[in-house]
Design goal:
With 364 residues, this protein is of the alpha+beta class. It has a 19-stranded mixed β-sheet that branches. The protein is elongated and about 80 Å long. The chain starts with a helix and ends with a strand.
Length: 364
């Protein structure tokens, strides 16, 4: 038994010594910076302008790979940015297949430490992400799940983090399906959980998302710091808009009918907002319903000159954003004010491009 243990220990030491020698040889004999022109040329073939201004270095633990510093990229259309440090790794078990066939080289892990991304498409608002960090491992393109975690700063330094398990199927260089499970997105005090599944070359998407309870007033306050045009309402009830949560379930079809069902809990009041998008007819229908709305809580507080009419702005979103026919139907059992209540409120508004028409307005 002692001899067996001795032989096993000697073999392990020999393997470790050989491995260390290989690592030292590769580190000293092969300078990865010589691959810069090849990497940049391959990126140009894929339609990307890539410039590597930093150094390339080998990494061996926990997986073999290469570290790339100070990289600038652009698709010369809408996307551009830079990465402080990018590390690409492969699994140790894949080394044997690479030795026999270099075309089998696949990236197993990606890690980004610091960077910036700017998306500035024509006729859309620019989106900039700062201080990007990203980490994923065991990457697969055959539908096998792998984890992804990322964090970044948006809108003047607001911290956003994303964690999810991804399953993606790629066929003939196009994405056939993409699933995000155990999805968690955090922005300030808001946490969004759920799952999203996209299929049919991403033309059909379904999923569900839920938020925690958060203060809408606090969110409006930090938005107003970034965009002074946004005014924060001052309401009669100091607790108004401090307990909000949203639950959404949706099916989106780019060529047929899409349904988005939302339950909004507004300070203990349930408001159902359902949207139906008829793509063939280019029509958006929005149905809003609630049993009771305590409207007196959302009036301007006594002695305030604040204008709270912006609270009704979401009702105009379907008409402002949808380029086609739109309809907003609203049914409220009771709207309660200080000294009276309006019951059985019903309204129906149609829109077509820039023309609005009120077809019905009833109440008791």
């Amino acid at each position: 038994m002692k001899n067996l243990f001795k032989r096993v220990a000697t073999s392990l030491i020999a393997v470790a010594t050989l491995f260390s020698a290989v690592v030292i040889y590769v580190s000293l004999a092969v300078d990865p910076n010589g691959f810069k022109p090849d990497i940049e040329a391959m990126a140009r073939q894929q339609g990307w302008d890539l410039a590597i201004n930093g150094d390339l270095a080998w990494t061996f633990f926990p997986q073999p790979g290469i570290s790339i510093g100070q990289t600038r990229f652009s698709d010369e259309i809408a996307t551009s940015g830079n990465l402080d440090k990018l590390t690409l790794s492969i699994a140790w078990t894949d080394l044997f297949s690479i030795i026999s066939d270099s075309s089998q080289l696949t990236v197993s892990s990606v890690e980004v430490n610091g960077g910036q991304l700017l998306y500035n498409a024509e006729n859309s608002l620019p989106v900039q992400l700062d201080n990007i960090s990203l980490k994923t491992r065991n990457i697969s393109l055959d539908g096998t799940e792998f984890p992804l975690a990322a964090s970044m700063q948006v809108l003047g330094g607001q911290q956003v983090s994303v964690a999810t398990d991804i399953a993606v199927v790629v066929d003939a260089s196009s994405v056939q399906s993409l699933n995000l499970s155990e999805l968690t997105v955090r922005l300030n005090d808001i946490e969004i959980n759920g799952s999203i599944e996209a299929s049919n070359s991403l033309s059909f998407i379904e999923g569900n998302l839920q938020t925690n309870s958060f203060s809408l007033i606090q969110q409006l306050q930090w938005v107003a710091e970034i965009l002074p045009i946004v005014s924060v309402p001052e309401m009669a009830d100091s607790a108004a808009l401090t307990d909000v949560s949203i639950e959404s379930r949706f099916t989106l079809d780019t060529v047929a009918i899409s349904d988005i069902n939302n339950l909004i809990m507004l300070d203990g009041q349930a408001i159902q907002v359902d949207l139906k998008i008829d793509q063939p007819r280019n029509k958006l229908t929005t149905i809003v319903s609630a049993d009771v709305i305590k409207a007196s809580n959302y009036l301007p507080k006594s002695g305030s000159s604040a204008d709270n009419s912006g609270l009704f702005a979401p009702l105009a979103i379907p008409f402002a954003l949808w380029q086609g026919q739109s309809q907003v139907e609203m049914t409220i059992g009771s709207v309660q004010l200080n000294d009276f209540a309006v019951d059985n409120v019903y309204s129906n508004v149609f829109g077509n491009n820039s023309v609005l028409r009120l077809t019905s307005l009833n109440a008791d």
